[in-house]
Design a protein that fits this description.
Number of domains: 1
Distance between the termini: 29 Å
Structural class: alpha+beta
Helix content: 10-25%
Order of helices and strands: EEEEH
Number of strands: 4
Shape: globular
Pfam families: DUF397
Radius of gyration: 12 Å
InterPro entries: DUF397
Protein name: DUF397 domain-containing protein
Strand content: 25-35%
């Protein structure tokens, strides 16, 4: 993975230390992490898994 990719904070992060999720993407994957604990690792989702996750959130399944 290109190390030049930048982690972006979710627009839903509140800026006051709560709900802090960051992501970075490349062509095939989306990486998610807790911005308060970036050294604790990240979750890697394929493009297909990411779309399924977004649909589940939008549909109120999660």
């Amino acid at each position: 993975m290109n190390n030049q990719l930048i982690w972006r904070k979710s627009s839903y992060s509140d800026g006051h230390g709560g709900n802090c999720v960051e992501c970075r993407t490349d062509i095939a994957r989306v990486l998610l992490r807790d911005s308060q604990h970036p050294a604790h690792g990240h979750l890697t989702l394929s493009a297909v898994e990411w779309r399924a996750f977004l649909h589940a959130v939008r549909d109120g399944e999660l």
